[in-house]
């Protein structure tokens, strides 16, 4: 892919991946099974109204907030190492990029059956899973986390995630211009 991927999602039947191309302002459709049918632009492109489409996370505030149903207040489940304006003390001794600290989170996905929350930690080149009931800041690295790179176990500034019904994780790997699939989480 010639443009960084700003978003990724699966259709209801899980046959197609829809990718938002940050640089070109378009959304394209691709077969999930990898069979090449060519690239189909389904929205935007060529100055048709979409500008730098992206995912959803508080990247500037470097935190992930869970809002329980019918709640009037969110609960911070993970926080980054900067912009801690309220003086909240987090778990961990140093800001070394351990799984307690986020650096530029760019996307969040809730795995509906389990309630787990997947967070794309872009500047740390990984995806972290937070389980319901985990202590604040405790998560499990489920993709990447081996430094920036282009090997099968590495990511380079991941941006978005999607899950299919089988638990396969799809990660848009921004600097590598690829979609990485990690089998059954």
Layout of strands and helices, then pairs:
Elements: E1 5-10, E2 16-21, E3 26-31, E4 40-44, E5 63-66, E6 75-80, E7 101-102, E8 105-111, E9 116-121, E10 126-130, E11 140-144, E12 158-163, E13 169-173, E14 178-182
Parallel strand pairs: 6-7
Antiparallel strand pairs: 1-2, 2-3, 3-4, 5-6, 8-9, 9-10, 10-11, 12-13, 13-14
Distance between the termini: 25 Å
Count of separate DSSP helical elements: 0
What Rg, in angstroms, do the CA atoms define?
Answer: 17 Å
Low-pLDDT residue spans: 49-60, 82-98
How much of the sequence lies in strands comes to: 35-45%
- For CATH, the homologous superfamily of one domain is named as TolB, C-terminal domain
By CATH, the architecture of one domain is named 6 Propeller
Order of helices and strands: EEEEEEEEEEEEEE
Query: What class, by secondary structure content?
Result: mainly beta
Spatial strand order of the main sheet: 1-2-3-4
CATH class of one domain: Mainly Beta
Keywords: Repeat
InterPro entries: 6-blade_b-propeller_TolB-like, NHL_repeat, TRIM-NHL_E3_ligases
Pfam families: NHL
GO molecular function: ubiquitin protein ligase activity; zinc ion binding
Keywords for this entry:
four-stranded antiparallel β-sheet; Neuraminidase; 185 residues; mainly beta; 14 strands
């Amino acid at each position: 892919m010639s443009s960084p991927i700003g978003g990724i999602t699966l259709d209801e039947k899980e046959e197609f991946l829809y990718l938002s191309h940050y640089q070109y302002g378009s959304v394209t459709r691709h077969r999930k099974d990898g069979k090449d049918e060519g690239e189909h632009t389904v929205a935007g492109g060529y100055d048709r109204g979409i500008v730098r489409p992206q995912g959803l996370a508080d990247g500037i505030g470097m935190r992930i907030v869970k809002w329980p149903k019918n709640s009037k207040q969110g609960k911070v489940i993970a926080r980054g190492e900067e912009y801690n304006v309220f003086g909240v003390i987090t778990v961990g001794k140093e800001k070394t990029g351990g799984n307690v600290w986020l650096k530029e989170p760019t996307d969040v996905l809730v795995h509906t059956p389990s309630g787990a929350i997947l967070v794309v930690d872009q500047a740390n080149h990984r995806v972290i899973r937070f389980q319901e009931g985990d202590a604040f800041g405790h998560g499990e690295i489920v993709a990447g986390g081996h430094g920036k790179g282009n090997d099968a176990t590495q990511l380079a500034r991941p941006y978005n995630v999607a899950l299919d019904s089988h638990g396969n994780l799809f990660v848009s790997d921004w600097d590598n211009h690829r979609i990485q699939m990690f089998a059954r989480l």
